[in-house]
Automatic annotation (TrEMBL):
SOCS box domain mapped to chain residues: 250-285
Superkingdom per UniProt: Eukaryota
Organism: Macaca nemestrina
GO biological process: intracellular signal transduction; protein ubiquitination
Domain (NHR): residue spans on this chain: 23-244
Pathway terms, separated by semicolons: Protein modification; protein ubiquitination
Name of the protein this chain belongs to: Neuralized E3 ubiquitin protein ligase 2
């Protein structure tokens, strides 16, 4: 029987007294049809459409985004990626449930949703349901470098999916930036995080290509370890983790942004007199 993890302190926010969280990795406990690569950053369902539930290796810190990019799709199945959080320790799950919905959720202490454009959005008690109808897209979506979710400020650059390098990648990239593609399109980036509240609970938020879809669940136990849940389900075949920088951007990131903004499209990066490693970093990240 799965058991909820022991309480931990989650009151402190990012700052000088609290270092950035370690890189995210997939847990070694996962569904029977999942294969995780040696780096722990790529999860692939190797057969069927189910038994694809994965977890984060460590509990998330408040405001930390567990961000995945959809790498491969598989035709012939109905359904897509599912994402959420659980207070269950993955190591206590034997066996891992076949589905996150409803099997894992039915174990309790778990909040998982199928990714859709009209995402589950929970209004605050006493406020009109119209508040939950749709997330509001800020007019500064394309220029504001940070995504603000409650008390957290998250660099937007890595949150947005990018097309494969090509002659028209600069046009396709805009579709990801505007978040007009299907949310589970190949190379879309999807993230989950939780934000503690003064009453000791937390709100769960899901991010689709740099856009906060609003609180998907409220009342999560902020004092307990919360693990990310990724269900590589049906038409979603493979996902990879994308790492974020929460503090000041690195020199490597700043160089990449300058180079990308100076190019019409990413294939032009090949003509620059730069090391191959840096050119690849600018083209694919």
């Amino acid at each position: 029987m799965a058991a909820a993890s022991e309480p931990v302190d989650s009151g402190a926010l990012w700052g000088p007294a609290r270092p950035e969280p370690p890189p995210t990795r997939f847990h070694w406990v996962h569904g029977d049809n999942i294969r995780v690569d040696p780096s722990g950053t790529r999860a692939t369902r190797v057969k069927s459409f189910a038994h694809g539930v994965c977890f984060s290796r460590e509990p998330l810190a408040p405001g930390q985004v567990f961000l995945v990019e959809i790498e491969e799709k598989e035709l012939g199945w109905c359904g897509h990626l599912r994402l959420g959080l659980t207070a269950l320790d993955p190591a206590s799950l034997a066996p891992v449930p076949e589905f996150s919905l409803p099997d894992l959720v039915n174990l309790g202490h778990t909040w998982v949703f199928a990714i859709t454009r009209h995402h589950n959005r929970v209004p605050r008690e006493g406020r009109p349901e119209a508040e939950a109808a749709a997330p509001s897209r800020p007019p500064t979506l394309l220029v504001e470098p940070y995504l603000r979710i409650e008390q957290f400020r998250i660099p937007r650059d890595r949150l947005v999916g990018r097309s494969r390098p090509g002659l028209y990648s600069h046009l396709l990239d805009q579709l990801y930036e505007l978040n007009v593609l299907p949310p589970t399109a190949r190379r879309s980036r999807l993230g989950v995080l939780f934000c503690p509240r003064p009453d000791g609970t937390a709100d769960m938020h899901i991010i689709i290509n740099g856009e906060d879809m609003g609180p998907s669940a409220r009342g999560l136990p902020a004092a307990q370890p919360l693990y990310a849940v990724v269900d590589v389900f049906a038409s979603t075949k493979s996902v990879r983790l994308v790492q974020l920088e929460y503090g000041l951007p690195s020199l490597q990131t700043l160089c990449r942004l300058v180079i990308q903004r100076s190019m019409v499209h990413r294939l032009a990066i090949d003509g620059l007199h730069l090391p191959k490693e840096l050119k690849d970093f600018c083209k694919y990240e």
